[in-house]
Amino acid sequence: MFRKIFMPGAAMIVVLLGAACSDSSGPDGGATGSTLTAAEVQQLGGDVVLDAAEMIEVSGFDPATGIPMMMPAPSGGPRQPPLCVTISPMPPVNSDGDMVPDSVRFDFAGCVFIHHMGQVTDSLDGTIDIVDPLPLATSHGVRHIFTQFTRARTNETFPARSFVAVHDGSREWGASPDTLGHTVTNFVTQWTHAGGFTSIHEKDWVGKFTATAAGTILPGQPLPAGSWTLGGTSQWERGPRVWSVVTTTTAPLVYDPACDVPPKITSGSLHLMVTRDQGVTDVDITFTACGQYTVTRTPAS
Length: 301
Prior knowledge:
Elements: H1 38-58, E1 86-88, E2 103-107, E3 111-115, E4 120-131, E5 141-155, E6 163-175, E7 179-193, E8 198-211, E9 226-238, E10 241-255, E11 265-276, E12 279-289, E13 292-298
Antiparallel strand pairs: 1-2, 2-4, 3-4, 4-5, 5-6, 6-7, 7-8, 8-9, 9-10, 10-11, 11-12, 12-13
């Protein structure tokens, strides 16, 4: 029987922000201009970090425990998907006998998980299809197709970290013992944040993970220490305005499995070149410690 499930964890990051979160107009273009306001810079940076965290978590090369909220396994027994998840077909077809079935759908309708000492509740809905890109050849690749996969998080301890995220699109990853590659194609996430604002991020990203010690990426095991690079294009929508975003890695993102705050990055930086009409805003995201990052911008050109 198929005993694995993949699902991205929802990363709530401890953020060190230096700018106020007001949408008031100003010399940077204002709420109706072509460049980002100070508040929008912080909001975009936060969305990019959340999306990067989910890409990293869903790339976790651990097919037995790919869902962070997996129910504990009975002593000595195999881990099981949560009882609320409907799996079809059952049993799945696995033509090549590797870890990934040919195609199986996980329906999360009505799933509720309570964790962090009862202070955080995740309510799930929608589906994820798990597909073997090479169903007739043994391989270590998997494709995830998200359809209206919704996570509504309520955080009693830190209400500002509550959100609703709706995911649609495709992710695919594959690995060797030394590196892991992740491709995100036409992937759309709609965020509704606790502050009341909504945003939509549609992206085509490519990520690459390189293990610090060669040969340490192992099937059935979490990612070892290593570093990520991330790049690609996206569109970010906030209210009536849409910006084009080019993301590049300016310093590799150092992944530390001992860090307990997703995306488990302790250093490194991303650069976002954000354009709308003739306006350009340069945004830098710098990770400073486990679960901490800053978002800064340079004057629009």
